From TrEMBL:
Gene Ontology terms, MF aspect: L-gulonate 3-dehydrogenase activity; NAD+ binding
The organism's taxonomic lineage, starting at the top: Eukaryota, Metazoa, Chordata, Craniata, Vertebrata
Name of the featured protein: L-gulonate 3-dehydrogenase
Organism from which the protein derives: Poecilia formosa (Amazon molly)
EC number: 1.1.1.45
Localization per record: Cytoplasm
């Protein structure tokens, strides 16, 4: 059956990512059962989702065609796993990033669902072959790795287990597209997937430039936010190169390929993120934005608001 005929999704874990996934799925008209084995947590999650959804509607930023009330009516909470899984065609696990816990969750889930139910993990750094190692029917397993916060940043990486069948990947891609996410398909699993590998490369060179005294924390962030990030918000690095030479990508590499290779050879080893030099980088960052909850929460709220407006701009264009 197509995803349009299947309407119930179970979200396991009611933390930030679990709540965000629930909001994404209800925005697409799916019934969502939130399960958390900690008493009261799933109910608290629904209270938080209600607050956010109503605020989004008031700001005219609510996703989907349904009103806030209609979306919220699709939510239910559970502390027992069996009823939480009843009727679900898709299970999105969002528990904390510990392999043994995730493996245990999926072992338990498999006891209560049929073989056709798709099992998906939100892990950001554990490969599917590890997460689903104790699952019997691994052909229906995949990682659906969102970018935080998923409600505002729509990209989701779909990463197959080595045994995952194509139909499962197609179904997950269809679901994510229907709820307004921007799914990308990885053809095979790799440590860090795509997002975190690209992010790690940027982090490493940014950290190295600050640590080596080449540039300040403030200015390296401006390199991205007021430079590269301006165009990367709409086009990626491959299209950027393709558009930045008169005759496209091949011409770009003729012009700049040797220079890029030279720069790459000049990169140093992986920076030390924990030693004495690293403390200077952390100190500089905390002078700009103190690491207490008040300052961090304010900056996170600003980030989410700007992402919300950026998402609207992209949608309207």
């Amino acid at each position: 059956m197509s995803t349009s005929e299947l309407k119930t999704i179970t979200v396991i874990g009611s933390g930030l990512i679990g709540r965000s996934w629930a909001m994404v799925f209800i925005s697409g008209g799916y019934q969502v059962k939130i399960y958390d084995n900690q008493p009261g947590q799933a109910a608290k999650a629904i209270t938080e989702i209600r607050k956010q959804t109503e605020e989004l509607e008031e700001a005219h930023m609510l996703r989907g065609d349904l009103s806030a009330a209609q979306q919220l009516a699709l939510l239910s909470c559970y502390e027992d796993l069996a009823p939480a899984l009843e009727g679900a065609f898709f299970v999105q696990e969002c528990v904390f990033e510990q392999l043994e816990v995730k493996q245990s969750v999926f072992q338990e889930v498999e006891r209560f669902v049929g073989k056709a139910v798709i099992l998906s993990s939100s892990t950001s750094c554990l490969v599917p072959s590890s997460v689903f190692a104790k699952v019997q029917e691994r052909s229906r397993c995949l990682v659906s790795h969102p970018v935080n916060p998923p409600y505002y940043v729509k990209l989701v990486e779909l990463v197959p287990h080595p045994e995952t069948v194509a139909a499962v990947m197609d179904a997950a891609h269809s679901l994510m597209t229907k709820v307004g996410q921007a799914p990308v398909l990885l053809r095979k699993e790799i440590d860090g997937f795509a997002v975190n590998r690209v992010q790690a490369a940027i982090i490493a060179e940014s950290w190295r430039l600050v640590q080596d005294g080449v540039i300040s924390v403030k200015d390296i962030d401006l390199v991205m936010s007021e430079g590269l990030g301006m165009r990367y918000a709409f086009i990626g690095p491959m299209e950027t190169m393709h558009l930045n030479a008169p005759e496209g990508l091949e011409d770009y590499m003729r012009r700049y390929g040797e220079g890029i290779a030279r720069l790459l050879r000049s990169f140093g080893p992986v920076p030390d993120f924990f030693g004495e030099p690293a403390k200077r980088v952390v100190k500089e960052m905390c002078e700009l934005i103190p690491s207490d909850q008040q300052h961090l929460s304010a900056r996170k709220e600003r980030r989410d608001l700007l992402l919300m407006h950026l998402a609207k701009l992209k949608k309207d264009h």
